Amino acid sequence: MPFRYRFLSLLALLWLASAPVQAADLLLSDRDCRELLAQHAAEPGSVPARIVADCREQLAAAQAPAAAPAAGTAAAPAASADPCAGPNAAQSVFCWGPWAGLAPAAAGEPLPDNPVETTDYEQRPELAAEFDNEVEPLDSGGLPLGSCAPGAPCGFATVVAGTSSSGPAEDTRFARFELATDGSRFTLRPTDGGRIDSVTGMQTRITGRPDQFENLTAGGSDGDERSRLVARILRDPDEILLAADIWGHGNAATAAAQSGYFAWGRAVTQADLDALNSGGVTRSLAFSGPMSVDNATIASLQLDFGPRAGWSGSWDNPAWSFSAGGRISGANFVSEPGRFSGNVRPGGLVQGALLGRPASRAVAHIIDVQLENIGRVRDVGLLPEVAGPPVN
Amino acid sequence: MTGTTRSIRLVYATLACCLLLAAQGSLAASVALVPAAAQVQPGGNLDLVLQIDATDVGSMTDLVQGQLLIEFDPALASFLGFMPAAGVTTGGAPLIGTAPGGQRSVTLSLFNAPSSGPMGILAFAIDAAAGGSIAFGLRDADEFFGSFVLQTPTNQPFFPAFSGANVQVVPLPGAAWLLLSALALAGRLQSGRRNS
Questions:
Q1: What is the pLDDT of residues B18-33, one digit of tens each?
Q2: B-chain residues near A209 (CB < 8 A)
Q3: Which residue range is the domain that position B150 belongs to?
Q4: Predicted ipTM of the assembly
Q5: Which chain A residues contact residue B63 at CB under 8 A?
Q6: How many CB atoms are located within 10 Å of the residue A52 CB?
Q7: Is residue B132 one of the residues assigned to a domain?
Q8: Which of A205, A345, B106, B130 sits at a 20 to 30 Å CA gap from A129?
């Protein structure tokens, strides 16, 4: 017996031996059937009789459609396109088979021709505040630290590793800063990602200072987590309007901590901005004060509103100084590359926002400059308004 | 340059570095408890002056805030009170508690203190017997962040060195005993004359 016939016979026997499989279920090609029948003709005992019978039926059935081509001209193309439309669909791995009678296929119900818009969503307004951080995406409007919306809380901060609040400028990062108006918690969103949340419910103590501010000292713990603030603040009457200086957060068990300085307040309202920009006249506001990281640096800024809107400023330290200027966008201001003094290397940045109410305005801002022969300087400052130039 | 000259210069350079380091160490901000008297008698009182020197991190006119923890053995002394220096404000009454090891702790919160000079005076009653000594420990109440901050012109943290005090408890001197005995005798004699 040729090898091919032996192999086919062995295959047929194996199929028969597999327990639940019936000969009727075997899928043999017409060619296999013809060869099996030829083998049966040559050696009658070499092929099981049932397979011989099935093959004969299969070959007879295969010849029937060819004899009646007009019976299903419409159905024939569909059957050839849909592999599950044929008589052997139940054996195909591509078809759902007999299970269709028990459960629909995974594709689910067919879509309606005209989908109807659903507006009946579950409303959870109590969660809205938790996800409304009031900080717009970075790089919005050309503001690398994001913009501050009129009337919304707005702050900037430096971030260093450890508890000392300051470190080398190269290791200092910037963040957006948020403070609860009672001083009991704060949140930072560093510009390079992540989030720092203080413990909630920090104990606060407010004491007097010899300047126009009060001092807020806040601290709290949650397990090994520790947070603290030491800040100059302005209140009206109980709500904190402006705040600046030291923040810290860390874990006493692991000694891992981050800290830094901040400047925070509520941005001027749109009504205040409209008033500053109204009347076709240029209104100038002047601000001055020490920076927070290095309070030997005194910053002086002038913001002009109206037809000649823009700003300029200078930062003077015993060891260095530089100046910058730029544009104003709503409550925000940002430096323009061509308006830095000559000792500032390309890539410098000053960004800030106008905060407070007409009677107690201030600017919060950051500086990030590389100075010739000095090196990098990164700082943050809250500058109260000072008597400025008259309205032009 | 000969080898000897080079060695001498190296020695001088090393010495200069050591002196510089020593000088820097001596300039560090400090907070200390300074006893008003080096010796106290049993049953007497003791004043400890809380002294700060932060002029290396700020100017003489800067103001300081911080929280301090004073620890001592409650069997040897009792805390009587704290008198802040002029201009210094406290964050409420001193907090008295028990530190690990059974030590008594007194926590003080001070604001608007000078950057140099006394911040206030702590008063204690001496309960110890003669012949011993009483150690008063001093440290930052917030040893994680450090609570000391220069308040002006902006708030900036600084980290002073802390030093407590050690006070000797001595018996009353012999002259004092003689004087007391004489006074007692005189009083008794006087009383006897009146009776007669």
A1: 444 444 434 589 999 9
A2: 63, 112, 151-152
A3: 29-172
A4: 0.75
A5: 209-210
A6: 19
A7: yes
A8: A205
